[in-house]
Amino acid sequence: MHGLGSIDYMEECPYGTFLEKYLKPCHPVLIGKKLTENWESRKTWVRQFEKNGDDSKDVRKDSQCPTGLEFLRSKAASHNDLLPDNLWDALVEASKQYYDSEEEAYKDLLLSPNYEHLKQVYGNIEVPLAYCSQKDKYGSQKRENVQLRTALQKLEEEEIMLRSIRLPESVGSYNLIRMYPKDMHLFRDSPVSIPYETPDLFVDDWLNAYTMNQENDDFRFSYIGSHLSTTPLHKDVYESHSVSVNLCGVKCWIFIPPSDAEFIHKQFEDEGLPSWITHSLFLENDNFKKIHGNVRILFQFPGQTVFVPSGWYHQVLNIGTTLSINHNWCNSSCILPMHFALQQQYEATSESLQDLLEDGIVSKERFSEVVTEVVEANYGWSWERFWSMISFQLQRRLAMSSLHATTSDSSKSIPPLPICVPPWPWEKSVLTDLFRNAKGNDEEISVSAKLFALLEEIQ
Ligand SMILES: O=C(O)CCC(=O)C(=O)O
Ligand SMILES: [Fe+2]
């Protein structure tokens, strides 16, 4: 077998377990499909794929069936370079853990995006479309902005073509489009109601509470991946957590724990991290063999939810057309690494711009502004916004604390705290550490001192 490690699976996961076992220690977990069973999008965004013609009736009985497992296997096998060895066996093995019968698994694997519905509701929205086989001048996946309708049309045409192929062997000769509309802000950019409810486990979300209320923006995304489209190896934005709910297709994830990321970084000192981890990397390189078992593989089937903790590198390969809803989110469980990561951005940027200061191109007074501008441009985030988010969150806590519940005017405009939040003493100790670590510059010291005083008011 592949020899890679695995990710915990919880068919159901109570908040207390999630908090202690996964959220606080930042461990990934896969959660069963019951968690999202009432989501409207699990009904309206997907449908059973139906091929026109009389062979569409009982797809399971046809051993060369182009619409079930065989369909996926044939194409997965023809792209071995992308996949860990025996990926297919691993996928089938994994499916046995989640499905009582093959029939049940087939039913889920026949799910496909409801193209008509998505076009009708979100078709006019401009979305980033990645071409997974092409690179831009920085070596990232080439992207362009298109109307979602246009991307859906191409994805649907390819899916119909692939599913109509009778002989699995012949699939290898097709050039897959590997298009991937990703990071789509469908909920921010559409007036229709949200077709899901964030599960309690992930509602304590400082990032979306702040950006949605204060910046008219959000970190709620949708992804529609064509067969064998990919997301390269990365950590998430600002070192936040992510949560991904898959609605159709299968996502093959590879995870690298933060403790091994540094080791991998060292192996690639000059070139930087590879954009894709392959199985052969682990087989051919003695150094990599050492951490092989720490690298984890996960297959995410329709309806399942993956918690991707802060700081974990991960990459994704889509098998079949996949459709998923993701949030980037954060709270006390990852605020320290987020702070540290931002601090590192400022330090590295300041160092790289020292020449401007030394050569007198930028004055001492202006230097920190220039550093902030560069950090904002490259990293998309700054101390000002970071501390505004913390301040916003503390106002929420304060508004909910018994002393202020009836007196705070601002509580009207501040979204109430969710039910499932970590115990305040724990959160308070994390925030106390955060304020202690805040020594970047005078402004940071003064902001954190003010917030520290606010912290003391909260019961
Ligand atoms: O599904 C994907 O392609 C990428 C998802 C991801 O990177 C995330 O949820 O953090
Ligand atoms: Fe990610």
TrEMBL record:
InterPro entries: JmjC_dom, JMJD6_ArgDemeth/LysHydrox. It comes from the Eukaryota. GO terms for cellular component: cytoplasm; nucleus. PROSITE patterns: JMJC. GO terms for molecular function: 2-oxoglutarate-dependent dioxygenase activity; sequence-specific DNA binding. Residues 179-346 form the JmjC domain. GO terms for biological process: positive regulation of translational termination. PANTHER family: 2-OXOGLUTARATE AND IRON-DEPENDENT OXYGENASE JMJD4, ARGININE DEMETHYLASE AND LYSYL-HYDROXYLASE JMJD. This is Jmj1 protein.
